[in-house]
Amino acid sequence: MAFDIEMIKKVYYEMGNNISEARKVVGKPLTLTEKILYSHLTSGKPTEEYKRGGSYVEFNPDRVAMQDATAQMALLQFMQAGRAKVAVPSTVHCDHLIQAKTGAKDDLATAKDVNKEVYDFLASVSNKYGIGFWKPGAGIIHQVILEQYAFPGGMMIGTDSHTVNAGGLGMVAIGVGGADACDVMAGLPWELKFPKLIGVKLIGKISGWTSAKDVILKVAGILTVKGGTGAILEYFGEGAQSLSCTGKGTICNMGAEIGATTSIFGYDSKMADYLKSTDRADIAQLADGIAAHLTGDPEVYANPEKYFDQVIEINLSELEPHINGPFTPDLAWPLSRFADAVKEHGWPRYFEVGLIGSCTNSSYEDLTRSASIAKFAIKNNLKAKTEFTITPGSEQVRYTTERDGLLPEFEKIGGIVLANACGPCIGQWARHRTGTDPKNSIITSYNRNFAKRNDGDPNTHAFVASPELVTAMVLSGDLCFNPITDYLTNEKGEKIKLEEPQGIELPLKGFAVEDAGFQAPAEDGSGVNIAVSPDSDRLQLLDPFKAWEGTDLYGLKLLIKAKGKCTTDHISMAGPWLKYRGHLDNISNNMLIGATNAFNEKTDSVKNQLTGEYGSVPAVQRAYKAAKIGSIVVGDENYGEGSSREHAAMEPRFLGVRAVLVKSFARIHETNLKKQGMLALTFANKEDYDKIQEDDTIDIIGLTSFAPNTPLTLVLNHKDGSKEEIKVNHSYNAWQIEWFKAGGALNIIRGRISI
């Protein structure tokens, strides 16, 4: 049902020879990251051209994982590829479409009814093409992957930015768009710009209120939301080895919030313990046999400055608990300074909801540490002062924690246990407001806290902390409460100081589950039919995008000049829009509705140059499309940060946007744009952003000689008749230019694969 042991044996068998060859070429000791990357090269060994942060390199990943919201579009694309079966082990996980309303049982039943068409589609496509299918309620994709599929030394891609969670089990796991997943499932190599390496040395050992979550909250504060872009973070040191496997997963998971390609820990006894506890002792035995290949060379860790592009050192013994936010996950506050920050900035002090769980923090250890606080609260007559929700990471975790009496502890203090799904973390939440002031606060153990991320409300100040700290905070309802120093007053008027949380890394009686929720695919899927109704508003078969017309582009209208942070949530919102993830036309009605227009400081309000009137971004773009006029989107720094959703690239492509020009891109989004045949361009001079005017008509010159490392020219035709030329850069290699010319990578895939 779970892992493919023969595939893992093959990976481990080849790894030794590949690493030996790589060391000969490179001529130096290797980091763990390099060992895994080099052992998965399509060419078999590295060459001199593999410069960090430089050239694009082709890899052969071991597996593909997809969550239900992104799997719809990925599989709609794969259906056009012409293969009878996926080329590598692949799975679909139904975790994003379950909306949290009243509780796990009712919410899951409602989701199965409301989303039946989509679930049936995903199940049938999986059955036909040899893909494992995890039913709704089975759990959050990343927790299930850690429990079932991840293995030290492997390489995986997944259609979710938090695929990186599997780095906690020593795997290079990278979030990608659906088109990338389609490539790999179709048997083609996967391409990545060879990353830079950031070493994070952990010394000491965490204790008390400090947890693994605080490590990544600290790192986020150091590197910021784009400090890890184009890099892989490799954690090492005695402190790294002291962390539990799921704690390592938490740290890797939130590496997505600093733009990192992925994060990883070396194989150690904690990973071996986790593998054995999750019925994978045979993998632990295989890993033990090649343990030297599953961590960096000793010389690397002895002198990390010589082998990493950047080195960060954190003393876990001195690390404070952190709370990050609001509105960005890199605004890091040590707990001892947080109360002053709340008062100084005037953030709503008394928060309305505390939420624990999500793919970042929903392991057995997380829930035991939080439950220990709830148990102490019950004993001392304390209850939640706010709404409190708990999301187990998987059915296996939920069943085991219920068996061990942990979930009732949360309910006794006023908590509600939600379904094993993403829920409020991605805006799938029927929030019950208790206050009347638009400005409000919530605190979660999730990973992202961008404006409108959790509940669609720009006035919600979302803060991120460890699940045990969130649990403590809900007993107060006050963001200024510090459980290390402050007291609570119970129902009897007694002053109570909380005890430090106590956790158990792995269940003493082992994990257990009655039905994990897995459906194996048919051995022969040729007779499986996939029905998509032409009248469906949830699913829509794809038509190929048109190829480039072979000329430079003239007369493009400026659609929007986005100001400030513009994440994939701003470009293609989640929440209620998730139901349209399989219908490109319908979901395109959310394109860029969250982006701030630099010319009027409003969202979803741009000038229609054909009428002179202001309208919704998608409506204005549809008007341009109807008039057969192309357009261009202009953005700021780190454009497209956040999730891997390729809808943020497919929607503008579908509606007729020809180019996206920004100061800088987030990695996944830039690749997604390229895959869909879009022009992803950056300002050669970032100050030229200020030259873009609201009524500009823009020409892109140089496409007839489009070549790697050769800038293009943009001509800005201003309303007053004047013109300006600016240079723009791109990172396309020769093969990616072919994607552009063909109208998208999928058009090339169809031509390369025989049925």
Structure description:
- The chain is of the alpha/beta class.
- Helices cover 31% and strands 17% of the residues.
- The chain contains 25 helices and 30 strands.
- A seven-stranded mixed beta barrel has the order 22-25-26-27-30-29-28. A six-stranded mixed beta sheet has the order 6-5-2-3-4-21, with helices on one face. It has a five-stranded parallel beta sheet with strand order 16-15-14-17-18.
- Helix 1 packs parallel to helix 12 and helix 3 (68-78) packs across helix 5 (116-129).
- The longest helix is centred in the first third of the chain and has 22 residues, at 5-26.
- The chain is globular and about 75 Å long.
- The mean pLDDT is 94.
What's a quick, concise take on this entry?
This protein has 755 residues and is α/β, with parallel strands linked by helices.
Characteristic terms for this protein:
6-stranded mixed sheet, alpha/beta, 7-stranded mixed β-barrel, 30 strands
Query: Whole-number average pLDDT?
Result: 94
**N-end to C-end Cα span:** 28 Å
Helix content: 25-40%
Summing up helix and strand content along with how strands pair, one would put the structural category as: alpha/beta
The spatial strand order of the largest sheet comes to 22-25-26-27-30-29-28
Q: Which stretches are poorly predicted, pLDDT < 50 over at least 5 residues?
A: none
CA-based shape: globular
Radius of gyration: 25 Å
Approximate strand percentage: 15-25%
Total strands: 30
How many distinct helices? 25
**Major beta-sheet overview:** 7 strands, mixed, barrel
